[in-house]
Amino acid sequence: MDILAQEHAKYDAATTLMHMSRQVLEPYDANNLRKIIRNTLYAKEPVVVVDELKKRRMLQLQKFSFENIRDYIGTDCAYVPRDLTNSDVLKQQSRLRIPTDFCKANIEPILRKDENPEDGISVTVYDSEGKEYLMKYKCWTSTGSCVLISGWKDFVNYHGLKEKDPFGLWVFRHAQTDNLCFAVTGQLDEETLIQIKKEGILM
């Protein structure tokens, strides 16, 4: 049975039990219900729905089509392929570290005067399907590191990301709002990357 179908079945079962909670059952029906509950609670092979959903979302992230974020990209677009490191996915860290040379070459030059990365800049981050996540872009003067925080852990958990997972990191000014935005997607294939460069989309 499909994962979503299982979830619907569970909801229907829970609703039915709620309506039955105040009903008096016949002995035969009550005995059968007890058997069903016992078999469900002590099943030898429980269905791990959460892990399956995370696996599906991770695959969706990797099956990336540039068209899903094209309409959001206005100006100053840059892209870098990366693999997630252990510290990128640690719960205690809760941040995505962005390569320093990428920040200096592609992010610092496009910041407005009212945008101070040391204080933190509120940004929108898109995934491979164009869904929005609110985060902050922040640079720590003590280490010189620049990161995405305040929402990155939820992004990792939702997509089931792990160390060494490949991804593409985008930065750009939004086509409508001109706000600083990022996208964390699957990596581009070489053919698509060449085509995007020909169109003048990437800096």
Automatic annotation (TrEMBL):
Superkingdom: Eukaryota
Cell location:
Nucleus
Keywords annotated in UniProt: DNA-binding, Nucleus, Transcription, Transcription regulation
Is Transcription regulation among the key words of this record?
yes
Pfam families, per this entry?
A: B3
Enumerate the spans annotated as TF-B3 domain.
Answer: 81-188
Q: Which GO terms describe its molecular function?
A: DNA binding
A Gene Ontology term for the protein's cellular component: nucleus
Nucleus listed as a keyword: yes
Gene3D superfamilies, sorted: DNA-binding pseudobarrel domain (2.40.330.10)
Read off the SMART domains from this record. Answer: B3 (SM01019)
Q: Which PROSITE patterns does UniProt cross-reference here? A: B3
| Membrane spanning stretches | none
Protein name (database record): TF-B3 domain-containing protein
**What species was this sequence derived from?**
Kingdonia uniflora
Cite the source lineage. Answer: Eukaryota, Viridiplantae, Streptophyta, Embryophyta, Tracheophyta
